[in-house]
């Protein structure tokens, strides 16, 4: 400390170095914002604008764009899309909050197992989730709204648990204890002290879940049958089956407008409640549940048990055939050349493709997501409007149809050097588009909650912006970064929408293999599909366990 003070007291140090540090910090901030936005412009905005432009310029006969946008059928689709998304988001929040409490605050046995089990449903392709719930609602072949809402809520509990739990693990619980000591009930202490501090993470999680539910494809396609459709399934129908690019483009614009409105409302709610919280090391906030907290733990355990019902059903289905229990699906999947459904590629090769592309996507998503989080945590002080626009823009890939993005890539990527449409990097780039917003939503609430006075004190003592990040921010957000990395990996591992359009026939990922197998008739194809789902869940479990081990090894540092 004395040496730092002496260094700052040298002649000219107080006049020159602060100005230099400010310029360096400004350049670093500009770079941190430019890289994610540049990637978004090239690999999202350009392809989507291209495919929408082609649709709007179409000269084919049929209703005009204005007629399509104002028709009663279109607004019926909008109403159902938003209604089921709101209901599923509310369900995911209600189910995910007790699990977040258990994961973040409770020193109980098997807490790591809870993290694993909660994450498993999220990696499953939405088509598989739809099939799992169809077995639970066997009498609803004509479509069931309840089944759609439950499936979408089931799919997204992990988003709430991990996003909220990431911040909850670091919030100082001494304020809550003080409120209890002053006579507040446990519920009042939660609503008046804890809940306001968690609002940024809750609104972030709600925004992500809403986007996933409003653009859910496989769940609605399988469970809605011919009775219920959303904007996402209608865009797919018009693009792939009817070749109605004009209608698909009009609906894509409507979907984009709804997504932007939802994101703007969510960002406004977060800005109103974000404050510099008193963060603590994660190890200091975890303790054995007391009194009524055991009831919340029991509720969380019940939620986890319910999440496992469709999972267990899938595993059982992968082992059962018309002739009894059998491993025929696994043997056929792990061999090659059993049939032409996968083009002679074995399920093991598809698994390796999944692991490799997910790893590449995670590296890219972490680089872009952490840079974006750093920029968004600093920008509100310099340019709040730009920060708000950037926050909304980074979330847009979650709310735009994967069909639109996939076809947009095929239309535009040939303009890049070497015809990028054939590049093996195209699939990881598409997966990173989906994973990056989740990294931002996991890391940003914790990063914004770091007390800025700590950064100012470090800068006053002569630390540059990179050293401030290393010494102040990283120890606080390190656990959230690890969680975001694991989350991004399993999201990339299970991504189906854009990957199904971009994966080469000779290099499918496991979700793409599942989609191909499900679309073909035959008992062997069904057994191979369920076996591929079980293999995908096993890979996910291994990834989550590795991340959990890393988190436990570092917990003393956070």
From TrEMBL:
Any single GO CC term annotated in Swiss-Prot or TrEMBL for this entry: plasma membrane
Predominant subcellular localization, coarse grouping: membrane
Superkingdom: Bacteria
Alphabetical list of InterPro entries matching this protein: MetI-like (IPR000515), MetI-like_sf (IPR035906)
Transmembrane segments: 24-55, 75-101, 113-133, 145-164, 248-270, 291-316, 361-380, 392-413, 425-447, 480-503, 528-547
Subcellular localization(s) per the UniProt record: Cell inner membrane; Cell membrane
Domain ABC transmembrane type-1 positions: 78-264, 351-547
Membrane topology: Multi-pass membrane protein
Family statement: Belongs to the binding-protein-dependent transport system permease family.
Family annotation (PANTHER family): INNER MEMBRANE ABC TRANSPORTER PERMEASE PROTEIN YDCV
Protein name: Thiamine transport system permease protein
Originating species: Streptoalloteichus hindustanus
Taxon lineage: Bacteria, Bacillati, Actinomycetota, Actinomycetes, Pseudonocardiales
